[in-house]
Amino acid sequence: MKLLVTGGAGFIGANFIHHILEKYDDYHVINIDKLTYAGNQQSLARWSDDDRYRFVEGDICDQEVVDDLVSQVDAIVHFAAESHVDRSVLSAREFAMTNVVGTLTLLDAAVKHDKKRFHHISTDEVFGHLALDAPAFTEESQYHPRSPYSASKAGADHMVRAYFYTHELPITITNCTNNYGPYHFPEKLIPLAITNIMEGKKVPIYGKGNQIRDWLHVTDHCKAIDLVLHEGEIGETYGVGGDNQPTNFSIVEKLIAILGADPEEVIEYVADRPGHDFRYDIDYTKIKQELSWEPEMTLDEGLKETVTWYQENKAWWKPLKEGSYKEYYEKNYKSKTV
Ligand code: NAD
Ligand code: TYD
Fold it and tell me: pTM of this prediction?
C-alpha cells in the first residue's frame, strides 16, 4: 500500500510514519509537509535513505502539487494542520487556510483520482468543552467549537463528511483527545513543562490550573488510526480517548516529581487563556467495541517515558526553542504574566 501522509513532519504525523514503516515492510509513504515552525525533518531522519519513504516540501493548499501526489497513492492520511490554540488566539487566518482550505484541496484531489480512501485526523475540541460532572463526548455530540483552532477543525470535519455524502468519497474520521509523547513541539503543555524544568525555567500555568484534559500517548493514537484506516467502516467517525482526567496542575506536578524539581521554584501562575475550554473527555466505546482498540499505555508510564525521551534528545528540541519560537513565546506569555 502507498500512503500520502500530510503533515508528517509534525508531532503525530511523524510518530505515525514511524509506526507504519516499522510495522508494514511493503508499505510506502509520501510525506507532504510545508515545514512550518512545527514541522521538523529531524523527526524522520532515520528513514531518509529508505526507498519506502519520500519527503515532499509543499503546501496542502497547492492544488497542483496535491493533485500530482494523490494520483500516486492508494490512500491519504491527513494530519497537516495549524494545531496550537494559543497561536489561533493571536492570529487565526492560517488556521482557516490550512485546516479548511487545505483539507478541501485534498478532498477535491481524492475525488478526482478515483475516489481515494481518505482518513481525516481530528480533535475532540470540535465538540466544545464540558463541565466537571458532564458525561464525556461521543460521536453523536453536537459540534460546538469555541476557539479559532477548533472552529477550523470543525469546518474541516464537516467538509470531509460532506464529501462522503455528496461524492461518495470513502472517508473515515477520528476525533482524538490530547496526545503526548516523543517529537512533541515544546509549545504544548507537556513538552513545554518538561523542557522548561530541564532548562531551569518557570512553567506557566494558565489561570488556576484546574482545567482538565484527557491525555493519550501518541503511540496509542497511531494504533487507533492504523486500525480505522484498515478496518473502519466507511463514512464513520470514531472517538479516541485516554481514560485520564488530571488537572493541568496535577500534570505539571507529576512532571516536577519525575524530574526531581522544587514546585515552589518551578510553577508560575499566569493570566488565563481567553475562552479557555474547561474540560475534554471522549467516550471511546465505539472503537473499543467495533475495532477492539483501547489505550495500552498508562499516564504515569507514558509521562516517565516521555521525560526520558526529552532527556535523551536535547539535540532535537533545544534548537526549536530559539529563533521564531522565542519571539512567539515572549509575545504569548508577556500578555499573560500577572
Ligand atoms: P503539529 O502542529 O505538530 O504538526 C502539524 C504539521 O503540519 C507540521 O509538520 C506542519 O509543518 C504541517 N503543516 C502545517 N500547515 C501545512 C500546510 N499548509 N501544508 C502542509 N503541511 C502543513 O500538529 P500535531 O499535534 O501533530 O497534530 C496533527 C493533527 O492531529 C492535526 O490535524 C491536529 O488537529 C490533530 N490532533 C492533534 C492532537 C494533539 O494533541 N496534538 C489531538 C487530536 C487531534
Ligand atoms: P495545550 O497543550 O496547548 O493543548 P490544548 O489547548 O489543545 O488542550 O494545553 C493543554 C492545557 O494546558 C490547556 O488547558 C492550556 C494549559 N496550558 C498551560 O496552563 N500553560 C501552558 O504554558 C500551556 C501551553 C498550556
Answer: 0.98
